[in-house]
Amino acid sequence: MSLDAVLARLDADLPHAISRLQELLRIPSISTDPAYKGDCDAAADWLVADLQSIGIDASKRQTPGHPMVVGHTGDSGKHLMFYGHYDVQPVDPLDLWDNDPFDPQIEDTPKGKVLRGRGTSDDKGQLMTFVEACRAWKAVHGTLPGRLSFFFEGEEESGSPSLVPFMRDNADELRSDVALICDTGLFADRVPTIVTMLRGLLGEEVTITGPNKDLHSGMYGGAAINPIRVLSKIIAGLHDDQGRITVPGFYDGVPELPTDVAAGWEALNFDHSAFLGDVGLSQPAGEANRSALEMLWSRPTCEVNGISGGYEGDGFKTVLPSKASAKISFRLVGTQDPLAIRESFRAYVTSMLPPDCSVEFTDHGASPAGQMEIGDPAFEAARGALTEEWGVEAAYVGCGGSIPIAGYFKDILGVDAMLIGFGKDDDQLHSPNEKYDVESFHKGMRSWARILNALAEEN
Amino acid sequence: MSLDAVLARLDADLPHAISRLQELLRIPSISTDPAYKGDCDAAADWLVADLQSIGIDASKRQTPGHPMVVGHTGDSGKHLMFYGHYDVQPVDPLDLWDNDPFDPQIEDTPKGKVLRGRGTSDDKGQLMTFVEACRAWKAVHGTLPGRLSFFFEGEEESGSPSLVPFMRDNADELRSDVALICDTGLFADRVPTIVTMLRGLLGEEVTITGPNKDLHSGMYGGAAINPIRVLSKIIAGLHDDQGRITVPGFYDGVPELPTDVAAGWEALNFDHSAFLGDVGLSQPAGEANRSALEMLWSRPTCEVNGISGGYEGDGFKTVLPSKASAKISFRLVGTQDPLAIRESFRAYVTSMLPPDCSVEFTDHGASPAGQMEIGDPAFEAARGALTEEWGVEAAYVGCGGSIPIAGYFKDILGVDAMLIGFGKDDDQLHSPNEKYDVESFHKGMRSWARILNALAEEN
């Protein structure tokens, strides 16, 4: 059976695959720092050459920022588009790294071998799982299955300023049947997952102004309005005593979880005590009568991410401040409309203002939730392949965070994305001593070989 | 009439009085900055010499901090103790000063002549009004009236760490019939006042901890408790919808205003629209059905002086913070017990904590309100003298702030204080371009001459 041959090839070639990944990791492609512009370019060149070496028609495409890498191969069958990013986060504080972040080495740890360095997990290691699967496939079959495209960006860690314009400008070229995105993780470090629900995000900054300058609380206290008190009352009013959000119309478009998905989540036996216990908590603090996974994946939230006002230094100062501000975000689900919620939120805040207070709002982005069409048989085929590889029933899961690329594929190209990844909870993404388990890398590339095989059979 | 002779002497000697004050102002006695320790010492020496030059038995008294200056004269009659402070606030930001803060000059302004420089109003200029009154009295009479003591400290602007121990250690020497304190201002820049009510102050810092570290709001939002939300709810609950403070027992010991005092305040025709209008407000925001002056002088308050938590920088970060904290102060009146209120406040906060949250309190001081015994005929005598000098009925007023020295005289020595001062609202205390009106200085010293005369006649 040819899949077995591909898997055997991947097993045999693992040391070389690790060497190739180390080469890519040695290029310090920190996208947010202009000092590394040349390195970002070099990483793109490396990928173009690597794709070309396995027969893919790949090229570097300039943008106002760092270049994209785009490649294509094949011309019939299901068109799969693989997305990853070659840029990495900065490495400071450097003194918290045990080793040079850009000289990645294999380390033995109590939990197995890991490759440690910046970008190992996020996202160069994950990106290469797919490339290595293709390389082995090509070595065994002499060709790649169906129609494959590759799309790597170099600005994911710096806000992706060129991504949407590039996708819009090249929509016909990038449109495909399904997108494959490898930038997520295993559930509980052992269950392979396909993320099918992503929460959206609405960010608002609210600044309340009372007096036109900071006042002395002895001289004015009692008679002058205090904007911190006003802001606190606004924030306190955002949730009712059942933990539900009070912004009018907020729950419009929030669906109940389909029973099959609910059953799948139930089967995950999510250990919320351990999840919360790790961060010093014991109880899910969200809406009454919702499970912890619902709170995290399928229910909307309203959080205060920051608050500030008056004297915040050491000691005490009896100031009655002129201004107080808060950064407030909403995680959105289903078909909640971010812009309608923004409007309703702003109307709520304005309605809570006492005389002599004014409010200023700052827009910090608005993106709707993402929901994949798991009716597409490709999803079940991929899920089966993952289950085979990991020996554990693969799960459709939600993701509490926002992965904007999935939304762009849907909104700009009309393409559903399969978010499949092999990261573990302790990968230290964005932090010192980032690592990627060699098992994640190895079984990751084997997973993609199985998925390519399953989707090819579907053709 | 000998009072007229003293007043005439003060008028004639005004240029020299200004020169003397300028000499004292040129000594940069910034008490909070160790670099100026020698200057604080020099200011104390200057005062000792000046008091000695008018026949007062004055000496510099060492403390662990900056020295006190104590002087005495006379041995019979009513014993008056005059208090002032010779230290000043720092001058930064220096570039906001139009002139060298320690080279004070007379300036003509649309509102009259002013002496501009650090300490002109707070408190060297005010302190010297009393010394100059004594100097003129001595020049005319050859002696000073009754029994007089002088008590100048050099740490008022840096928390007075040596004051209470010094007063305790020297209580017998410092005890007097009444204390005179010149560190306050005119009402509406024209009505002389005697402050008879001072609000107390209780300062508390509250830090709420939820998760044991900052979390990603995508990963944990919904399930993890957010300490900013908890803190906001606590703050929002501190006042009811009538503006009253909800801490149990808070209003114990809050008296209604005596009708004669209320009538006196009414007669001041306080222009709260102008007072609030200057800072961009239009309406008194305190308890329902209380006048603005009541809110400022005779009603207790609860203010949030600072709040902080989560991400406060530019842009947005979807953090779910571990901690949130607020600095909260209570202005106290009547016989409210600061320690009982602290205990009740802490119990209230603790009762508002949801599961998985903890609270830490930091004590930032507790002092009760001060209330002078205006039944003492000295108060009416002084009020009459002030009325004579300024041609406006002098008023007993409250003070929204806290002037700890008045409380110390009462608590440690059992002495009531008369707080009389001649500052104006635009004196820029603690700020760049501090000034003192020459009229304040001149009529201030004349006021003290009249008060000395009135109190001497009372003997």
Automatic annotation (TrEMBL), chains A, B:
Gene Ontology BP annotations: proteolysis
InterPro entries (alphabetical): Cyt/Met_Dipeptidase, Peptidase_M20, Peptidase_M20_dimer
Domain of life: Bacteria
GO molecular function terms attached to this record: metal ion binding; peptidase activity
Domain Peptidase M20 dimerisation span(s) in chain numbering: 198-356
Keyword set, alphabetical order: Hydrolase, Metal-binding, Protease
Segments crossing the lipid bilayer: none
Hydrolase among keywords: yes
NCBIfam families per UniProt: PRK09104.1 (NF006579)
Name of the protein: Peptidase M20 dimerisation domain-containing protein
